[in-house]
């Protein structure tokens, strides 16, 4: 069994394409898009992509705006202030990537999943409000509460001495509002969702994931197997191996992959 990793540009987005060589040109191969975290890059999630590829998935790992191959010379605080621009750009680019891959005959429309880590998971939650073609999703230490998290980021920026004009704050909050999944739970429509979060996370507050899960339990009463939340004690802002393996099991179960040798 050979797994290939190719650096490709898809819809003008630098990406890694990870898949078994025997499945590379098979349209029926279940496909997963993997969004990385803030200050990270596509290569940093290759270990997860490799394990998914072993199970018969095709995985695309794009570089987010201002990250990886797209990083530009700028001060770190400027990228901090571009956090939501990065996320909204990734959401838009996701559909552009899907369209181009579909034209190339590399996608099976009913076998598309999305996974994200931290900022990437926040991106994933926003994408769920826009794209019903996402069949299942996984969040590693992300949050669906866009507005709540945005206010928290603004408070953190102010404590660091980064002043954001009130007009810019209002403009940002207006732009992210349509992507706040916490305020439009009906957009999930029972789609399979797995969430993982470490209870000692000091970057993305763990209580937000627990709260979101509790809100969703009512929504998923008819399909309880489509919703799962895993928390780990004494784990900070770092994805555990337990979480990785569970996510792979989740995709195997909900993207209906057929394992190929």
From TrEMBL:
SUPFAM superfamilies noted in UniProt: alpha/beta-Hydrolases (SSF53474)
Keyword annotations of the record: Hydrolase
Segment forming the signal sequence: none
Coiled-coil regions listed: none
GO terms classed as biological process: proteolysis
Source species, domain of life: Bacteria
Peptidase S9 prolyl oligopeptidase catalytic domain span: 91-256
Pfam families attached to this UniProt entry: Peptidase_S9 (PF00326)
A GO term for molecular function: carboxylic ester hydrolase activity
Protein name: Hydrolase
